[in-house]
Specification:
Layout lengths: L6 E4 L3 E5 L44 H12 L3 E5 L7 H6 L1 H4 L4 E6 L3 H6 L3 H17 L3 E5 L9 H18 L2 E3 L22 H21 L10
Parallel strand pairs: 1-4, 4-5, 5-6
Antiparallel strand pairs: 1-2, 2-4
Helix pairs in contact: 1-7, 5-6
């Protein structure tokens, strides 16, 4: 039985696509690097590593790797591609969207906005960027999981509230699967984060993986023709 062709991509972005048979899957070196992201400011990057990258962890402890293992163990023929870039803003994710969605992408997990919030960038601009990402993904028949983020309190209560509500508004307007907070149960808990207090440690990463999996799993069976390997 021939496997489905397709990907899951978390964009900070993460994409999920169905795994291709080894004989036709491009080697990693054949996939060109993402285009450089043009920065709007020379301000040093705050917390310059994408959360999906598993900063401070072994590769197998990162959320995308844990999701990949879960898919394999469950018998789903999907490949997870982490398209995140360190220090990425929503504008950066949008600028690389075509590259991120290359291949037979089935599901897009959007984890963007944390760096917008850290910089205090305009919420309206972030909403426009995320809207464009969702719209273009849906136009390609790609299922979308939108994960919410929180802005730090130092920009004031009004900014923090507006920032949080953008994700809820987008999820409702576009009827996409929604995870209210990517770091739910992990943020602000010292023993679940590395020394910087911002990135999950191995235990925290497993909690995030469970949060994302609970949103992802229903989409795997919902997509027409997506099924597990025979005999699983």
């Amino acid at each position: 039985m021939k496997l489905l062709q397709g990907l899951i991509v978390p964009v900070a972005l993460v994409c999920v696509s169905c795994a291709q048979p080894e004989a036709v899957r491009p080697a990693p070196e054949e996939r060109s690097a993402p285009p450089p992201v043009e920065r709007a400011s020379s301000t040093p990057e705050p917390s310059a590593t994408a959360l999906t990258a598993g900063y401070g962890l072994a590769k197998e402890e990162s959320v995308p790797s844990l999701i990949q293992k879960r898919l394999k163990d469950a018998g789903y023929p999907y490949e997870v591609v982490n398209a995140g870039v360190s220090g990425d803003t929503s504008a950066g994710g949008l600028s690389r969207l075509d590259w991120s969605l290359s291949g037979d992408v089935k599901i897009l997990v959007i984890e963007l906005g944390a760096n917008d919030g850290l910089r205090g960038l305009p919420v309206a601009g972030m909403k426009q960027n995320l809207t464009e990402i969702i719209t273009r993904a849906r136009a390609r028949d790609i299922s979308v999981i939108l994960t919410g983020m929180e802005a730090p309190p130092n920009f004031g209560a009004a900014y923090t509230s507006e920032f949080r509500n953008v994700y809820r508004q987008l999820a409702k307007e576009h009827d996409v699967t929604f995870v209210p907070f990517f770091l739910d149960g992990v943020a602000g808990i010292p023993n679940l984060n590395i020394a910087d207090g911002m990135h999950p440690n191995a235990e925290g990463s497993r909690i995030v993986e469970k949060t994302i999996w609970s949103a992802l799993e229903p989409l795997l069976g919902a997509r027409a023709g997506d099924r597990k390997h025979p005999g699983r």
